[in-house]
Amino acid sequence: MALRHAVLAALLHEELSGYQLAKKFDTGVANFWHALPQQLYAELTRLETEGLVTGREVVQDTRPNKRLFTVTGAGLAELERFTAATAKPSFIRDDLLVKVQAVDQVNAEAVLAQLRERAAFAEAKAELFGSLLRTMRGDRDEEEFLRHGDRIGPYLTCLRGLAFEEGNRDWCLRGAAVLEERRAARARG
Amino acid sequence: MALRHAVLAALLHEELSGYQLAKKFDTGVANFWHALPQQLYAELTRLETEGLVTGREVVQDTRPNKRLFTVTGAGLAELERFTAATAKPSFIRDDLLVKVQAVDQVNAEAVLAQLRERAAFAEAKAELFGSLLRTMRGDRDEEEFLRHGDRIGPYLTCLRGLAFEEGNRDWCLRGAAVLEERRAARARG
DNA sequence: TGCCCCATGTAAAAAGTTACATGATTCG
DNA sequence: CGAATCATGTAACTTTTTACATGGGGCA
After folding, report:
1. How much is the pLDDT for A170?
2. What percent of chain B shows pLDDT beyond 90?
3. Which of A65, A139, B98, B104 has the most CB atoms lying inside 10 A of its own CB?
4. Where's the Transcription regulator PadR N-terminal domain (chains A, B) (predicted)?
5. Of B84, B112, B147, which one is at a domain's C-terminal end?
């Protein structure tokens, strides 16, 4: 039941349509959670019937009409309750880790290729997060911004996203280097 | 459908019972995946009917009997197929991140407390992973072990787990420091 | 004597993924 | 002219979580 809270948190600063929300959750720009469009449309509907968000129709001539959603007082109260409750620890769940775990018994070439691919993906995401952070803090430096800025929440979660992707990248590159080195050693005899 | 592959990967080196497997997956010692006991018992049953693992009954007098599972040839082939297929990117999904995202609008004290708690948890896990790594590499240094050791798969995934938890800890401590500083600033002015 | 560990599950509910559906507009 | 974007969903399926069930042995 955390998707609803993720949606509420995402709508806290901006009024968004389901479509816009979906884009954020999909690309991982909303890097504190991930969800598919269908989930979001369904969740927004549920949240609206429960009075936690309100939608207003925006009629567009050139584009299809859309509904923009805002968090209500009840929605904010619900987020407050959620925030006060204790959170469970989070776990990694990643196909690639499973493959690496098995790398001694299976085709290492395939794993090597996927490590390289993932490293590139992680690097791209890290760069995206980096530029988002620069945009958020403007001309202030980070220390200054975190001391006195408003809206530090999204900044902090983006920092975690950045570190996570940098960690991914570094680990993938390290793993790839190890596998390459071992392949080379086998080739030498 | 990755749980089955996680189970196969976990059983690759050791023969384990459902209970033992559950403990690993629960404490996150099998830090490349996480699953509840019920899932594992169900998955083991399924894997056995599909011939991907075989169980052998071990009769115990003082303890209840148990069934130890091993990966079959078909199981290894299935892992091989899985490894060759392309993996999807992984996303963070964490309650605490949602709470931090909302921290500007909700009670920051609760978030601060949870950041501290999580930092401690992450630190404990990082230490556990650190000692697991030391055990795995024995008296060799890491470079040496990764070059010439066998079973580097579990070592590499454990390295990722370690970096992840260190990242968690550092980020939590940073976030907590920021929130404290802002509280102090508010109190002053 | 009460609580934790061993050991294995079933059943139901919630959450997440995959597949499919529709239709206009803008861009290369 | 075909593909991508805007915009919103429904339906079926898979996966994960929560709650419940059972029963002996060891330990404080």
Report:
1. 98
2. 90
3. B98
4. 7-80
5. B84
Residue B156 is predicted with a pLDDT of 98
pLDDT in tens, A18-62: 999 999 998 878 889 999 999 999 999 999 999 999 999 999 999
- Report the distance separating Cα B153 and Cα B159, nearest Å: 10
Residue A183 has pLDDT above 80, yes or no: yes
| CATH number, position B14 | 1.10.10.10
Q: Which of B84, B109, B124 is the last residue of a domain?
A: B84
Structural domain includes residue B90: no
Which run of H or E residues covers position B29? Answer: none
- In this structure, the answer to whether residues B76 and B100 fall within a common structural domain is no
Contacts of A117 in chain B (CB under 8 A): 86
What CA–CA distance (Å, rounded) separates B103 from A177? Answer: 40
For residues B53 and B74, membership in a common domain is answered with: yes
**Rounded CA separation A177/A53 (Å):** 49
Q: Is residue A29 part of a domain?
A: yes
Same domain, B133 and B175: yes
One domain, residues A120 and A62: no
Question: Region B6-32: what's the mean pLDDT?
Answer: 93
- Binding-face residues of B in 125-184 toward A, CB within 8 A: 146-148, 150-154, 156-157, 159-161, 163-164, 167, 170-171, 174-175, 178, 181-182
How many Å apart are CA B98 and CA A31, to the nearest integer?
A: 10
- The tens digit of pLDDT for each residue in B62-79 reads 899 999 999 999 999 999
pLDDT at A90: 85
User: Is the confidence at residue A137, as pLDDT, over 80?
Assistant: yes
Percentage, residues of chain A above pLDDT 90:
91
No. of helices (H) and no. of strands (E), chain A: 8, 3
> How many domains does chain B divide into?
2
Q: CA–CA separation, A91 vs B131, rounded Å?
A: 19
Q: What rounded mean pLDDT belongs to chain A? A: 95
> Do residues A70 and A106 both lie within one domain?
no
| DSSP helix/strand/coil, A33 | coil
CB contact under 8 A, B182 and A147: yes
Q: Which residues pair with B69 in a beta bridge?
A: B16, B55
| C-beta atoms of A33 and B8 within 8 A | no
